[in-house]
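Practice problem 4.
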């Protein structure tokens, strides 16, 4: 974007311009809205003004879609987490684009300027470093702002690490919850896992490699020996999916150390088989020896997935029998 020539006083009064880094192709020529596919130049029609949320590969660069290339080639601006990462992707396809950084640290400042541009008739494509924008990044706030401003928004779907890991895990896919990154510290993680313990769905987490073993240990403590899977380096040469009960996965990564690459952890939903009444009573008695009726009922209800009122009623009866109520 060329800077207009103006006096120093007018510069002080004008709004700050968006920082802009042209890709190498844009720096060498005119942004013509074309790109190269299978060795031939593709012409792309103009885009409607608005926001285009574009998914990009999570590892294998060949996973970019033709529609994504169309949009990236013709958008007036491409906003991204890291201009260097996105610049490499665009260069592979001969795309000349104007890149602007948009991330957690500058989103609040940049977002109003992007809204003004789209209101003025510009088309903006949003990408993340890898995968689908607006999942675990500030992208959803821009989508929300566009909706509030009645600006056109559409998505160009494609890869996302969480769903890819879920598909490869072999765990139920009919109902799942994407929970993002757990808290970094043990107490926070366990508290969060407790809130998810009774959710009747497969759980999908992102996790840093260095915290993986500790996070798996906390999952085992809270969720018990559920089946799980750890997926890393998805779609890349060294893709790996390790499957097994949480206790086995915990031991493996405690001994092997932190793996390389991005990590997705998938945990099976709680068992749908209702325990026998005798087993429930045994669980209640064990907890009544250590805590109040209310707390014992809460723990057993969470562990079994059964209604708390039902467990509380049974716990009261057992406490009366034992003379501890």
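Answer key:
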């Amino acid at each position: 974007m060329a800077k207009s020539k103006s006096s120093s006083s007018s510069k002080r009064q004008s709004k700050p311009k968006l920082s802009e880094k042209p890709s190498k192709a844009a720096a060498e020529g005119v942004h013509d809205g074309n790109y190269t596919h299978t060795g031939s130049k593709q012409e792309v029609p103009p885009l409607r003004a608005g926001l285009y949320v574009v998914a990009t590969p999570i590892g294998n660069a060949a996973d970019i879609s033709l529609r994504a290339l169309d949009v990236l080639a013709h958008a007036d601006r491409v906003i991204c987490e890291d201009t260097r990462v996105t610049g490499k992707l665009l260069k592979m396809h001969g795309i000349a684009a104007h890149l602007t950084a948009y991330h957690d640290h500058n989103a609040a400042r940049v977002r109003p300027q992007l809204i003004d541009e789209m209101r003025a008739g510009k088309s903006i494509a949003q990408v993340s470093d890898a995968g689908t924008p607006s999942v675990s990044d500030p992208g959803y706030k821009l989508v929300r702002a566009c909706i509030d401003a009645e600006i056109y928004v559409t998505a160009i779907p494609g890869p996302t690490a969480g769903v890819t890991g879920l598909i490869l895990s072999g765990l139920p896919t009919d109902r799942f919850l994407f929970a993002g990154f757990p808290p970094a510290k043990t107490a926070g993680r366990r508290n969060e896992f407790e809130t998810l313990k009774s959710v009747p769905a497969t759980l999908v987490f992102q996790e840093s490699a260095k915290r993986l073993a500790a996070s798996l240990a906390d999952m085992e403590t809270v969720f018990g020996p559920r089946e799980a899977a750890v997926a890393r380096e998805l779609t890349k040469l060294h893709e790996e999916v390790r499957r097994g009960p949480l206790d086995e996965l915990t031991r493996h990564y405690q001994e092997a150390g932190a793996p390389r690459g991005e990590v997705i952890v998938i945990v099976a939903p709680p068992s749908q088989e209702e325990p026998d009444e005798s087993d429930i009573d045994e669980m209640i008695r064990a907890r009544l020896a250590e805590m109040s009726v209310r707390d014992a009922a809460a723990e057993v209800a969470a562990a079994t997935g059964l209604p708390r009122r039902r467990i509380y009623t049974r716990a009261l009866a057992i406490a009366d029998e034992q003379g501890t109520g």
